[in-house]
Design a protein that fits this description.
Elements (H helix, E strand, L loop, with lengths): L2 H9 L2 H29 L4 H11 L6 H12 L8 H18 L9 E2 L2 E2 L1 H5 L1 H19 L5 H28 L6 H26 L4 H28 L2 H4 L5 H4 L5 H5 L1 H19 L7 H12 L3
Antiparallel strand pairs: 1-2
Bound molecules: 3-methylbut-3-enyl trihydrogen diphosphate (2 copies) and magnesium ion (3 copies).
One 3-methylbut-3-enyl trihydrogen diphosphate binds next to helix 5, helix 8 and helix 9.
């Protein structure tokens, strides 16, 4: 399952978009598979741990984050092949965040990407460890670039994104005990989702050795896109179906989560997501036609149905 096959219609740019997105997802999936296979052969004694890792990495998903790494690199004139380790690293951090997010101590979800959650198959202990493995391996991947200063800059960007995500997840859990508040929702979403998406765009720009002003512009693009992405996720939780999303719906309200629809209502939430996307589009306007695919991805984020 990947972004193009499921979302060609909502991307709205017809066959051309399907082509480039399809090519991206195939390349990313192949690189993820190759990497996990090489780690499996090197760690044969921990086969069940690696099976748990593989279960969550190979389980599909839209691959939005690695696509953003590759596309921001390409938009800045860089060689996107070189950005692949960074793209895989971000997908590993994302997969780790999902495995832990579903644990009974967190959101207690039994379904992810249309399949039983990791802990439902491998048990809680291995699910925790699979997440830990993915996080450590992500930073290992970043050290593979021969350019030491690029590796260091990648590591800083990914650490900032990951720390933001973890901080946001902590606030999300604690927020279940508090009255819903617009400012708290903004605080949580900015961290749990937007920071990692911002890191994707910064890493792509870093890989292309983009000038600082462009790095900042793409960071801004990622942050606005990330905010809109989580607003859309909140909206889908209350308007879509388990079949379409591959994860349970209606869970946020039951769990007293701090969400946009709870804080602002459906209409205002949609309007806020649109505003964020307009800001994202503005941030990549200076790229001109080189930013076309980033603009397409931005529109997709709020039009998506899963
Ligand atoms: C789900 O992310 C978690 C959020 C930050 C909302 P995605 O919707 O990108 O999940 P996959 O990777 O496509 O399954
Ligand atoms: C999770 O947000 C964000 C993460 C950092 C994983 P949600 O808890 O809303 O994500 P889903 O809806 O379970 O995918
Ligand atoms: Mg959660
Ligand atoms: Mg969740
Ligand atoms: Mg959600």
């Amino acid at each position: 399952m990947g972004l193009p096959s499921d979302h060609t219609a909502v991307v709205g740019a017809g066959a051309e978009a399907a082509d480039w997105l399809g090519e991206r997802v195939l390349r990313i999936n192949a690189a993820l598979e190759t990497h996990i296979a090489s780690r499996k052969s090197a760690h044969a004694s921990h086969s069940r741990l690696l099976a748990a890792v593989e279960y969550s990495v190979a389980a599909g998903g839209k691959r939005l984050r690695p696509i953003l790494v590759l596309e921001t690199c390409a938009a800045c004139g860089g060689d996107d092949t070189r950005a692949m380790p960074a793209a895989l690293a971000v997908e590993f951090v994302h997969a780790f965040s999902l495995v832990h997010d579903d644990l009974p101590a967190m959101d207690d979800d039994d379904l992810r990407r249309g399949k039983p959650s990791n802990h439902k198959v491998y048990g809680e202990a291995l699910a925790i460890l699979a997440g830990d493995w993915l996080l450590a391996e992500a930073f290992g991947l970043l050290s593979s670039d021969r350019n030491g200063s690029l590796s260091a800059a990648y590591a800083r960007a990914l650490a900032d994104g990951t720390l933001g995500m973890i901080e946001g997840q902590a606030a999300d859990i604690e927020g279940q005990e508090r009255d819903v508040s617009g400012s708290l929702v903004e605080f949580i979403h900015e961290r749990k989702t937007a920071r990692l998406i911002e890191a994707c765009c910064r890493m792509g720009a870093l890989c292309a050795d983009a000038p600082p002003s462009l790095q900042e512009g793409l960071g801004r693009y990622g942050r606005h896109l990330g905010r809109a992405f989580q607003i859309a996720d909140d909206l889908l939780d209350c308007t879509s179906s388990t079949e379409k999303l591959g994860k349970r719906t209606g869970k946020d309200a039951n769990a007293s989560k701090q969400t946009y629809p709870e804080a602002f209502g459906l209409e205002q939430s949609r309007a806020r997501a649109e505003r964020e996307i307009n800001q994202a589009l503005k941030a990549v306007a200076p790229l001109g036609a080189k930013g076309d695919r980033l603009q397409e991805l931005a529109r997709y984020v709020i039009a998506r149905e899963s």
